[in-house]
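Hi support team,

I submitted a single chain yesterday and got back a structure, but I'm not sure I'm reading the token output correctly. Could someone confirm the output below corresponds to the sequence I sent? I've pasted both exactly as they appear in my results page.

Thanks,
R.
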Amino acid sequence: MTDRPSRRPPPLAVALWLAGLLPILGCAIAAARISPSQTNAWLNPLLFYSALALSFGGGVHWGFALYPNASIPSDGDASKPRLPGLVIGILPLL
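Hi R., thanks for writing in. Yes, this is the structure output for that exact sequence:
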């Protein structure tokens, strides 16, 4: 048996990720339940927060792609940047 690092995120990271979904869900529910004249009051924060969350996730992908030795290498040369990580990281901004 090998002592391989776990690929599962720590429980605190999962809890914080789930907590980060609360503003998205709250704004979406509020926008769907209020009068149409007030929908923009909830849709704008929903869009801005969603864009911020996606950009943060993209930054994480870029970090792992540019510093591949910080993560568990999946295949190939661990010292080269991983192109898929760079592409996935920029998609939310595009």
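A quick pointer for reading it: The first helix runs from residue 11 to 33. Let us know if anything else looks off.

Best,
Support desk
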